[in-house]
Amino acid sequence: MNTGTILYSVNFKTTLKQLRKKAGLTQAQLAEAIGTSQAAVAHYEMGIKAPELAKLPAIAKALGVSVADLFKEEPGGSQAAKVRVSPNRRAIKLQKAFEKLKPVEQQLVLKQVEGLAGQK
User: Fold this and answer.
1) pTM above 0.70?
2) Is 6 left (phi over 0), alpha (psi -120 to 50) or beta?
3) DSSP 120
4) What's the rounded Cα separation, in Å, for the pair 41 and 25?
5) Residues of the chain with pLDDT > 90: what percent?
6) How is domain 6-73+85-118 classified at the CATH fold level?
7) Torsion angles phi and psi, residue 112, rounded to 5
8) How far apart are CA 70 and CA 93, in angstroms?
9) Which of 68, 95, 55, 72 is nearest to 14 (CA)?
10) Which helix (H) or strand (E) holds 7?
11) What is the pLDDT, as a whole number, of residue 48?
12) Assuming Cys at both sites, which of 30, 88, 105, 108 could form a disulfide with 101, CB separation 3.0 to 4.6 Å?
């Protein structure tokens, strides 16, 4: 397994939160079920961090859904969101630097990146 693999999904953070709430779980309960911290689950739901690929089956099991359901535009919907997996060294380096930032700084960086990505 490549532990540096980064997972990107257009709707993962929103879908995860919706599925967690539908399952009646708190972030802390989901975190305990998948062997991580509540803060990590919060970061997944805010799009600050993405879970390692190896965690996806545990997340799906805890939520009572399939791994594919984690990437659908709407929970229970049929159209899968675009997913890209990249063990790109530059992305890993950026992720590590990003993780060293304070949450407020992370939010500022995200807004900047989103603004740039929206420009053509």
Assistant:
1) no
2) beta
3) -
4) 12
5) 30
6) 434 Repressor (Amino-terminal Domain) (1.10.260)
7) -65, -45
8) 26
9) 72
10) strand 6-9
11) 84
12) 105
Place of tokens 């060294």: 89
Give the DSSP letter string of 19-52. Answer: HHHHTT--HHHHHHHHTS-HHHHHHHHHTS----
Three-class DSSP category at 84: strand
Taking a C-beta distance cutoff of 8 angstroms, is the pair 67, 100 a contact? no
| H-helix or E-strand spanning residue 104 | helix 103-118
Bridge partners, 84 (sequence order): 8
Amino acid at 115: G
pLDDT grade for 71, boundaries at 50, 70 and 90: confident
CB–CB of 23/15 below 8 Å?
no
Separation of alpha carbons 29 and 20, rounded Å = 9
